[in-house]
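Retro notes (design track)

What went well: tokenization of the new backbones is finally stable.
What didn't: we kept losing track of which sequence belonged to which structure.
Fix going forward: every design gets posted as structure first, then sequence, in one message. First example under the new rule, 335 residues:
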């Protein structure tokens, strides 16, 4: 069996098991999801919109990672781990000529260390943001927006879990906190609007939202190698901020007008906005297969991993996307 590894940077969101004889593991996973609705501030379901136009968003994420035991203490182990995540975001408006997409590009490089036993574990992780930049180019034929595929900020992650086996049943609870770090950002905007025609450089300081994730799961081994289960996940987002916004262009008057419009929310900057408080409660069904002869584990989850936590079938929420359509597949191998 592959040893237990409770890393949130595992996009599959499940522990990877391994034997006491193995020294580490490698993994790969891929997730896809579609967002067509949001929860508003009152918790009602509303149509997802981009710049006021009904739209759908397609989120994809892939990750490659490895962990290694640096110290074995009986059944407990101290490990280090790393993961490279790639992601894309595409927003498809229902009408109009605007295209918004990031392309499938690197998103973050995650480095972690942790301590784990068969019953519990905890870890610390640094997520180095290497995501794409924002670029808006408006022409007479339509507007192209190169969306960022990350929030543009590094993050420190702290988490832990407790597991409790009961025969064929496997119970567990856990928590993770994502502390995003302040950063300075720049974006390019080109417009053909008669009043604001020109190319501008927009600079600002941002502190993206922090996240707290609380989760619990119950799994049942229908046969020793196959586990079916359900994870309950609550995600709380704490408001972020955007400050010290400046706009520079060839015409100081136009730059001042555009800057005032962005600050007032009349002409918001796509992809880099101060996120509001929000929360979502959801369910994530999962299925895993662990080989009896090889240190291999396959997983399938009804969830989509965005930049941080897996996002399943939501039951309720506020100021967050409605989760309905998505999946994650993963493969882990112990060595």
């Amino acid at each position: 069996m592959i040893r237990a590894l409770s890393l949130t940077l595992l996009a599959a969101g499940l522990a990877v098991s391994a034997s006491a004889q193995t020294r580490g593991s490698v993994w790969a996973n891929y997730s896809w999801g579609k967002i067509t609705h949001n929860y508003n501030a009152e918790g009602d379901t509303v149509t997802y919109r981009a710049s006021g136009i009904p739209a759908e968003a397609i989120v994809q994420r892939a990750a490659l990672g490895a962990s290694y035991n640096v110290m074995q203490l009986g059944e407990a182990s101290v490990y280090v781990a790393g993961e490279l995540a790639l992601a894309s975001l595409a927003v498809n408006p229902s009408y109009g000529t605007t295209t918004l997409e990031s392309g499938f590009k690197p998103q973050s490089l995650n480095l972690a260390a942790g301590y784990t036993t068969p019953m519990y574990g905890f870890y610390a992780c640094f997520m180095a943001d290497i995501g794409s930049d924002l670029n808006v180019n408006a022409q007479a034929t339509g507007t192209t927006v190169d969306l960022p595929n990350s929030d543009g900020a590094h993050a420190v992650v702290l988490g832990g879990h407790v597991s409790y086996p009961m025969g064929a049943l496997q119970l567990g609870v856990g928590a993770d906190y994502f502390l995003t770090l302040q950063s300075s950002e720049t974006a390019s905007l080109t417009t053909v609007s008669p009043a604001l025609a020109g190319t501008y450089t927009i600079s600002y300081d941002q502190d993206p939202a922090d996240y707290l994730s609380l989760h619990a799961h119950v799994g049942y081994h229908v046969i020793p190698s196959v586990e079916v289960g359900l994870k309950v996940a609550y995600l709380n987002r704490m408001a972020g901020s955007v400050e010290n916004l400046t706009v520079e262009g060839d015409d100081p008057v136009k730059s001042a007008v555009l800057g005032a419009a962005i600050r007032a929310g009349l002409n918001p900057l796509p992809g880099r906005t101060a996120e509001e408080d929000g929360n979502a409660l959801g369910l994530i069904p999962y299925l895993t297969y662990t080989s009896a002869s090889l240190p291999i584990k396959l997983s399938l989850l009804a969830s989509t991993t965005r930049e941080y936590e897996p996002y399943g079938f939501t039951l309720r929420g506020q100021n967050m996307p409605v989760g309905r359509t998505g999946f994650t597949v993963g493969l882990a191998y112990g060595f």
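Added context from the reviewer: The radius of gyration is 22 Å.
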